[in-house]
Amino acid sequence: MMKSGLLTLSFCILSVTSSFANTLKVGLVLDKGGKDDKSFNSAAYAGATKAEKDLKIELKYVEATDTNAIENLHRSFARKNFDLVIGIGFAQKEAVRKVAAQFPNVKFAIVDGEVTAPNVRSLMFAEHEGSFLVGALAAMASKTHSVGFVGGMDIPLIRRFAMGYAAGAKYVDPKIVVTENYVGVTGEAWNNPAKSKELALSQYGKGADVVFACAGASNSGVFDAAEDQKKFAIGVDSNQNWIKPGAILTSMMKAVDVAVFDTIKDTQTGKFTAGIVQFGLNNNGVNYTLDKYNEKLITPEMKKKVEEIKKKIIAGQIQVPDYYKKK
Asked: Signal peptide span per the entry (predicted)?
């Protein structure tokens, strides 16, 4: 009997050890905005923590406060035998490319960056399509025929938002004026709300009554300016309507949380594939937001019109200009 009990105990210990050893280990590398930026990074973090809870994975995250440290952060996760390492943001592209080549047995994913490698999944979004929709809504809401755009850095990704936004506004109102400004030229631009507020106030002062903020944690400055001036702002990446109810017309949402969660789940179930995964209007990868915080700001007529535009984009009847394909 004693021997049998020992065997049973040994089996239990081995089972627990085996279960722990098989737990998927995921490393998340956030960019400078951090998990509390209420935008891009917050959405990624939400997707990862949902996976931690629902899929019982082991999750560790770091915030890359110094851009030069990104490569080492990825390498550190890989050296510790993490199964999947996810980089958030275009600035991590080169780091992922280099480290993925050094650790071919580790799987990597990157949001907003294309890396061609057998162990890397690139999660890409049709920002221009979603931006076209919020641009159309901005033009419908504008009483001055003037709207604005405040981007973080003047880079192709943010230009893609700006081009789609302007095209959407002009689709509704061909004579509308679209003013465009950028917060800065370094990574600090994504976390400088004082500067973004200054830019937004200037745009409002020159007649704009809706400003689309695409500047990470700097968006809060635009929202403050909108509230101060009793004008409208538009959020980005996650649903930011709740931050300043009544001042935020809508948000251009990217389903970064879904992309991160699905990538973790695919890795856990052995369905991870390398290559580009696209998220657009056709699969709810991007969209405009409508909820209790802004339902009084978007009239039934506005909703009907923007839904018609959305269907036409998906059907190919409206060709949204794409900065990435700009000649």
From this structure: 1-21
Residues 132 and 113 in one domain: no
Same domain assignment for residues 183 and 198: yes
Does 108 share its domain with 136? Answer: no
pLDDT at position 22 is 83
Please state, in angstroms and rounded to a whole number, the distance separating the CA atoms of residues 310 and 316: 10
209 and 312 fall within a common domain? yes
pLDDT in tens, 62-105: 998 888 899 999 999 999 999 999 999 999 999 999 999 999 99
Residue 321 tokens, joined: 């200009």
Residue ranges making up the domain that contains 212: 127-253+297-325
CA angle 235, 294, 241 (to 5 degrees): 30
Asked if pLDDT for residue 2 goes beyond 80, the answer is no
Domain total for the chain?
A: 2
Do 110 and 246 reside in the same domain of the chain? Answer: no
DSSP, residue by residue, 33-61: T-TTSSSHHHHHHHHHHHHHHHS--EEEE
Residue-wise DSSP of 150-180: EEEE-SHHHHHHHHHHHHHHHHH-TT-EEEE
